[in-house]
Design a protein that fits this description.
- The chain is mostly helical and 178 residues long.
- It folds into 2 domains: 36 residues, no CATH class; 134 residues.
- It has 3 helices and no strands.
- The radius of gyration is 71 Å and the shape is rod-shaped.
- The N and C termini lie far apart (219 Å).
């Protein structure tokens, strides 16, 4: 008997005979379990318990791995989205820059076209003025020629008249003399 059993006996006042039977039962049970063949179901259960624990660990690791993969994928998608936004922003800036350059180019072309039109208009006006001056010169020349011709003719007419007047005077003097 051990000291624990003695203490129990003192506390409860249990008789020793009864304790011996209990002790014998416990030792007999130990002996019987040692002599008996191992229980296959218990062994299978313990093996399954180990396997189940390893499977749970495996599943937990897989779950953690999937979560990490999902987080990594989400992070990559977010980064890709940010890159896409940045690229789109740059593209929009480039488009605005090209549109601005196009507008400036169109404005420059319009100014050049207006200048060309003004130059052509000035050239046309100058040519018209030159043509008008030429026409005026021709008119003046013709008028002057016409005036000279008229003067010549008037001179001729005067001469002829004077000759006629002279002839008539000669006739008149000649008749008077007679």
């Amino acid at each position: 008997m051990g000291w624990r059993e003695e203490r129990l006996i003192k506390k409860k006042g249990i008789k020793k005979t009864r304790l011996k039977k209990i002790k014998n039962l416990v030792t007999n049970k130990r002996i019987r379990t040692k002599e008996r063949e191992p229980d296959l179901w218990k062994e299978i259960y313990s093996k399954f318990k180990i396997f189940n624990k390893k499977y749970k660990n495996f599943r937990e690791k897989q779950k953690i791995k999937k979560q990490k993969e999902e987080q990594r994928r989400l992070k990559e998608e977010e980064e890709q989205g940010l890159q896409d936004q940045e690229q789109q922003k740059l593209q929009e800036q480039e488009e605005r820059k090209l549109q601005k350059e196009e507008k400036l180019k169109e404005a420059k072309e319009r100014r050049l076209q207006i200048r060309e039109e003004q130059r052509l208009e000035e050239k046309r006006i100058k040519e018209e003025q030159q043509e008008q001056e030429r026409q005026n010169r021709i008119y003046k020349e013709r008028k002057a020629r016409g005036d000279r011709e008229r003067l010549k003719q008037l001179k001729k007419v005067r001469q002829l008249r004077q000759e006629e007047v002279g002839k008539i005077e000669i006739k008149i003097f000649g008749e008077m003399r007679k």
